[in-house]
Amino acid sequence: MKPVYFMLFLAILCTSCKRQVFYDEFDPVFKTGDSIKWSAKNLDQKGWKIDRGFTGKNIFWSRTNVKLISNAGGRLGLQVDAFGAYEIYWDGVKIGNNGKPGSINKQEIPGTECQYFLLPDSLSQLGLHTVALRTTQFSYPKLQRGIGLKLDTYINLIKIPLIISSLMFIMAGAFFIAFFYYAFLYFNSHKRSYPVLIFSIICLLFFSLLIMEYIKYYIEIPYPQFFVRLEIIGWLTFSISILVPLYFSIQFSLKRKLLLLSALLLTLISIYIYHYGHYDISARYYSFAMWITTMIIVLEAIYRKEKGSFLVLAGMLASTVMNSYLVYDFGIFIFYTFIVFAMLYLHTIKMREIELAHESSLLLSSRLQLELIKKNIQPHFIKNTLTSLMDWVEDSPKQGAEFIQALATEFDIMNKIAEESLIPIRQEISLCQMHLKVMGFRKEIAYQWEDFGIKDDELIPPAIIHTLLENGITHNAPYQDGTMKFRLTYSEDLHLKEYVFETIGENRELSDERIGGGGFKYIRARLEESYPGRWTFSSSASNQGWISKITLSDTKI
């Protein structure tokens, strides 16, 4: 949303909330007992107390004076915030009830915590008025909760909460859609990213928080269940306060995130215990602890020059400024919205990086395909193979035909796997066996192939065993009897898979370790493409010739 539209929205909201009724409210007084005379406007309040005291299952009365100064609107309405079941009197005239007060012999029908009443025009003149409540509070009898009164036009009392809540529900709907989108994105992604899941959960929690905060305008909640809603709101705020810093700590790659988040968790638990029952205070402190922790993470990210850290800082500061000018119940959601927008922006940056990495991987894959093709159409390989082929055809046409068939099969397999990133291990073994057959005709050496423990359903990057086979043929010589053996062994445990490739023959050059040229680079590139950060590769001389090991892991190594 452009800033001008946002400011226009705030202006309309503030205009719609402009006060039309001005009044002064005085402190209430209480008295236990029951007499209809206590509703009178000009009652002598001698003996009435400013504290209600413990009333148990007795009826008690409260009286509050209200001075109406001006009324520039329509018919007056009265909003009452009080616990219990009560009958309400305005200047001695009963104007309604909220629930039904009980007695020793009669069960109380609980009222709601907030109720609205229409005042008679005949009793709405300017001046001093008296509001009297005949009340019982069978649930939470020891709870000394105050009585709140608000005078305004009846239309405003009904309309303004609905306008505000409808706007908040629109915001809640946006976060509900975001929750589903990012949840589907996480569970349908080949490579799942935890920040995406955390952001999805935060959107769901924020949606739930908005619903729980403003649902009171749409459903009646009896006062005995009043604290259930507040407890849910408290735990939702608690959860958001821990997940938001967790998200930023992961996105900004904070090194000591566990230490910082543990301190935050202990702080939030301490706030919950120390301020138990004071729900608004607890929620404020939860949000403040979250803000402090997030600021530490963002400032540390700015120090490390992380992308998006300055914009997140700007969002945090802007949300704080706006929250300071708005009432808490409204401002806290603006505060959270700015933070979620900052998180969304940070997520788009990460998605862009993933997109660039994907494009790079596609380029790498194309280069690897070309490398694989180049490896098998090298001029000296083709020239030497064709020369040997001519000799075999002249000397032994039958074996020459077998030579041609083996060469054609090798090229056919190579053509099929050139565009794949992973192929079945048996297809790789077939490629190696065909290559040994071709090289056996070329060099007139009895090459032998062995494999053990191979699982046919395992996949492997194409031509990496084939590359090790080529290196073994190039850098090792056969035994004096003209034989040379290659052995592939597969093993696995709960989290690791290992391929061991052995060249059994005479080493042509003795060294403890061979770094490798283009062949080893090709193997490492293929492994990183298919198992990023989850592989190891080693190759070294052995007593029998040469041994190479490829280890694949479920997690980063």
Distance between the termini: 45 Å
Helix content: 40-55%
Radius of gyration: 39 Å
Strand tally, please?
A: 18
- What structural category characterises the helix and strand content? alpha+beta
- Describe the largest sheet: 6 strands, antiparallel
Identify low-pLDDT runs: 1-16
- Globally, the shape reads rod-shaped
Strand proportion? 15-25%
Number of helices: 13
Description:
This protein is an alpha+beta fold. The chain is built from 13 helices and 18 strands. The chain has helices at 3-16, 154-187, 194-214, 226-251, 257-274, 279-303, 309-324, 328-376, 379-395, 397-417, 425-443, 464-475, 518-530; strands spanning 21-25, 29-32, 60-71, 76-81, 85-90, 93-98, 114-118, 127-136, 148-153, 423-424, 446-452, 459-460, 476-477, 483-492, 496-504, 506-507, 535-541, 545-553. Strands 1, 2, 3, 5, 6 and 8 form a six-stranded antiparallel beta sheet that branches. Strands 11-14-15-18-17 form a five-stranded mixed beta sheet, with helices on one face. A three-stranded antiparallel beta sheet has the order 7-4-9. β14 (483-492) and β15 (496-504) form a beta hairpin. α3 runs antiparallel to α8, α11 runs parallel beside α12 and α12 (464-475) runs antiparallel to α13. The longest helix is centred in the middle third of the chain and has 49 residues, at 328-376. The radius of gyration is 39 Å and the shape is rod-shaped.
Briefly say what this structure is:
By secondary structure, the protein is of the alpha+beta class. It has 13 helices and 18 strands.
